[in-house]
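Predict the 3D structure for this chain.
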Amino acid sequence: MKKITISEIFKSDIVKVFDKVTSNESFIWRTDIQHIEVINKNTFIEISKDGYRTEFTITSKRINEYYAFTIKNKNLKGCWSGSFIQEGKKTQIVFTEEVAPNNPIMYLFIGSYIKKQQATYIRDLKIAFGE
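Done. Predicted structure below.
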């Protein structure tokens, strides 16, 4: 498995940051997502702009503190966790993703792919908050 962690500080309140990250109804701010299908309260599918489907199953959710889920699609499987820390009026996020490609050859590229995905997500989130 390849493990990648990213950390960022937002000027926004922890409630707003947590709500934005965990909402499956409000995804218009994400430039990489076309649609999210909610299967049930713990499972959802993100459909990328190019139609690629990834299933997520929530494994833990502590309001304004922690959020975690498993990830799987035809190319990879793994897990993601996010910690949310209030720092005065700001919020620090620490997101960790651990994934393993289904094809061993793809292991060479999975790290750069995940880093790119995380950078896009943080950029989009910053823009959503006007930061």
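The beta strands are 2-10, 33-38, 43-48, 53-62, 66-72, 76-87, 90-101.
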